[in-house]
Amino acid sequence: MGNVILVKNPATGQVVKEVQINTEEEINQAIKAGHDSFKKWAKVNAHERSRLLSKWSQIIKEHKEEIAEIMTLENGKPLYESLGEVDYAASYIDWYAEEAKRIYGRTVPASTETKRIVVSKQPIGLVAAITPWNFPAAMMTRKAAPALAAGCPFIVKPAVETPLTTIRLVELAHEAGIPEDVIQCVNGSGSVVGRIFTSSEYIRKITFTGSTPIGKQLIKESANTVKHVTMELGGHAPLIVAEDADLDFAVKQTIATKFRNAGQTCVCANRIIVHENIAEAFSQKFADEVSKLKVGNGLDQETQVGPIINEKGYDKIVAQIQDAVEKGAEVLVGNQYNADKEQGYFFVYPTVLTNVKQDMVIMQEETFGPVAPIITFKTLEEAVEIANSTPFGLAAYFFTNNYKTGTYLHDHLDFGIIGWNDGAPSGAHIPFGGMKESGLGREGGIEGIEPYLETKYLSVGNL
Ligand code: NAP
Fold first, then answer.
1. Is the domain 237-427 a CATH 2.40.50.140 member?
2. Where in the chain is the domain with CATH 3.40.309.10?
3. Atom 41 in ligand 1: which residue has the minimum CA distance?
4. Tell me: the pLDDT tens digits for 80-116?
5. Mean pLDDT of all residues in the chain?
6. Model-level pTM?
7. At CB < 8 A and 24+ separation, what contacts does 334-340 make?
8. Which atom of ligand 1 is nearest the CA belonging to 133?
9. Superfamily of the domain at 4-233+438-460
């Protein structure tokens, strides 16, 4: 990597910008500065922290087009998705600007007349975040906003593919009046910066969004200094279509959740589990609609599906499709590519597979691409067994208008986020996060600020 990151446009392979990699010394200085700012920032009253966060959100919205264009250039997603992500990212700041004012403690009735018991909350200290490339704005603000609202200074390392969006958001935070040492960005490879973060005694919490193997490693490394951790890790979302589902609606929602960001989201519907009696009708309608999706450069107005982020991601998708086809899957649409390893661009056309079986790699390993495998089921028990059969437990979706079917699925699916007739359940106001190997903790909602707070209990005696 040398001492710069070459940020490339994944739609063309062209270099967009060079970003300086921070040295170990610079990163340690940033950590020390963040730590030193803690006492001062924690003392800023909650209403003032709220005002600064609101100002940050307002400035981000004023720069919406500029940030969206940066995001599409470095990530490849269609411009309308980037514009949507800027709003989504700002919505976390708006939400936690309000929550800053609602960090309540409580009093507890004492067991004797001579005591008073008070429980209060205080910020945990310096927070370090490591974020992925697939949502370069929202994955950062979802962590920064509650940390800053709680009174914690914040330092972030964005993914090497997409540092530009984060760098710009941090500049805008400073423009809004949040002190420079209270929110900082450092750049470098995850393995280097991650080790510096986890070994620092100044950092009290690591918040990570990324793959499950790296999350496990960060948990282990954080144990040495007993840091708090929040882990938003991989998913492999099932989407169940029951026999009674409204097929047109289910098709529309499945397309929205499957092909957003070219299938590169942690909550993408990766395993489409359809009742055998409607499987043919669903598959045909779905494939017809999928074949209409426009693939291309995210900056083109028409584009609905952009490029794959890099060669590694592309190779994994191609291998999953080939494995499925070799084991008997039928390609209804797709299995087409436009890639140039020399130039560095990688497009996978939206692909629908039927006759899919559980032993195919695509059913077991997280898919990060525009591929929709369809598997059939006879009974609800069987659908749940397939859905719960991986180590992941992030998001699950089901489509049914029967309340008994819906209640059964809700009760039996082991997932942190469930969409019932809803392919887009995310939002700043809800607790986002996974069960099993999809993570620890929740981001968003009233739950999302709790991981940045310590609980302190006071017992006053001899009254
Ligand atoms: P990744 O390889 O785990 O990378 C994510 C971040 O971790 C990047 O900043 C990366 O740095 C850093 N990293 C890599 N190795 C590291 C190490 N040894 N120590 C510390 N940090 C390290 O994941 P990805 O492929 O970029 O992102 C996709 C994954 O994220 C998928 O599994 C997806 O499901 C998950 N995700 C989860 C959520 C959620 O909310 N649950 C949301 C979005 C994505 P580099 O810059 O060096 O790569």
1. no
2. 237-427
3. 232
4. 999 999 999 999 999 999 999 999 999 999 999 999 9
5. 98
6. 0.97
7. 334/290, 334/370, 334/371, 338/295, 339/314, 340/13
8. 26
9. Aldehyde Dehydrogenase; Chain A, domain 1 (3.40.605.10)
